[in-house]
Fold this protein.
Amino acid sequence: MSVLIALIGFLLGALVNLLADSLPHYRRPRGFHCPSCGAERTPLAWSGVISFISGNRSCPYCGKRQEWRAPLVEIGLAVGAYLLYRANPELSVFIPGLIIVFIYLLIIVIDIEHRLILHIVSGPSALIVLLLSLLNPNRELQETLVGGVAGFFSFLLLYFLGQLFAIVMGRLRGTQIDEVAFGFGDVTLAGVIGLTVGWPGVIVALILGIFLAGIFSFLYIIVRMLIRRYSPFMPIPYGPFMVIGCLAVYFGVAKSLAMLLAP
């Protein structure tokens, strides 16, 4: 059974790669193809792991080599599925957990590579998460909806404040600032996170995500200053950190850490 679970995770990882190659460019799913030239991949190149093992990593048309992301995602999701099943083999817990991991892994991959949180991803994800909450006997619908609304509108406020800050700083500097701390994609992602963890979990998830992003940003700025490549308003994707906060709350990691740190 464990092998079957890992295989399911592996196949879902291949699907994440397919969607991550398609959605940023076409806003719709497309068959396995080279994201550089758009040519269809041979069957041996549909999987990142198989393409690396079989030597079909390079596109036969443009020569672009498949990135390491492809096998890492497949292996990572296979291991993740196995660990989820070992943690709780109840299908009513395992299946929703695996779906949640699939959704947020796709969001992380696209945001890291393209700095985009696509509505074509967050919209269906919100519906799927809402459906999962309706099927969860331990979750009240009101808890889910309040979490979604709180997540969306709290980050909507941050989005408008970021826009205002960019306008003011642009005028002070005499140049337009195109990069802002939060994009509208982060707002929709916060709404999906709220639906995922409900109320009041959304508050913990978003604060944890902002805290982790702040630590990373601080260390990143220090490193860039040390190598003398620092520039103000450097774009840093917040999506992955928000997702980490969400998953920490959803899987109970944040609660476990709080209990360990409590006096």
